[in-house]
């Protein structure tokens, strides 16, 4: 195995939307193309990008991680069976990086890792989900992935009626479970913000036939413990699918306190970017393996090589992979969900295009989506996204 070339670029991923913490009007994503030469001179180009919520990392890629990948030796990136080793490439890329303080280097490394897995599956001539099932899951891939429609963002002037219309569109697209943002009225006294959000939530639950288990709500880490508990008391009788990122993602003890007072499912993890941070959440966050949801996003957290370590850590702590539903709504995590038997994957039907969303012409039915059978992650079956990658030349 030999790295032939690595190209990178920066693409806009801007949307005129906001959650409780940030707006997305200036969001960018790094894109890379990694060409690898394998056995018999066969070449494959894998593509990668970082999913939404973190910005492009051109400096880290150019100064440290791409040069290390290009300089990696054949022995470092080749498995004993002669195939491309994303894990070996990961070790080469992370040379001279100290532990801890993961910062945004996990984003830069995740972009390269995605491209290397895409290339590995293309060199094998199989879709990534199949490669993953064969290498790490005794060949057992799921026939489809459970997906839910994430939206319900704040737009200037967007009222309850527009929110309900948006959710109605998702139901029309084949999703049966939807997610909306809450807690996004900064400066509003807690009591008023809660009343406003409960009116929004009740309107959507009504659309869902009164079934709260078809709705998740997302705070994006905005609340302190007092606000999280106040909302929890109001939300508990609604029987919601989950209560997402109610608290700062790195503040584990407040999660443990919330979990003592809120019996329904809590979801978090999209802003934890390493196995070690995930392990701290599992050790100290008081989360419950029989109901809570873990949303670590492999594209933002050092890629799949690190995500496999996180899954091993979870198994040691008695957590099923089915409790994992990654953040990001991208094809990479969808392949991982199907190939490794996770609980499902996020989906953004109306935002973060073209990076969000799955292969063209693959319909969502009853919140389930099947996988394309082309080699790699499936980017070539998503025209709008592949057009962005083609700009790398
Ligand atoms: Mg979220």
UniProtKB/TrEMBL annotation:
It comes from Falsiroseomonas stagni DSM 19981. The record marks 52, 179, 346 as: Transition state stabilizer. One of its GO terms (molecular function) is metal ion binding. It comes from the Bacteria. Gene3D superfamilies: Enolase-like C-terminal domain, Enolase-like, N-terminal domain. The active site is at residues 181, 327. Its cofactor is Mg(2+). The keyword Magnesium applies. Residues 160-265 form the Mandelate racemase/muconate lactonizing enzyme C-terminal domain. Keywords: Magnesium, Metal-binding. Binds 1 Mg(2+) ion per subunit. This is L-alanine-DL-glutamate epimerase. Substrate binds at residues 19, 52, 98, 153, 179, 244, 270, 327. The record marks 297 as: Increases basicity of active site His. Pfam families: MR_MLE_C (PF13378), MR_MLE_N (PF02746). The keyword Metal-binding applies. Mg(2+) binds at residues 218, 244, 270.
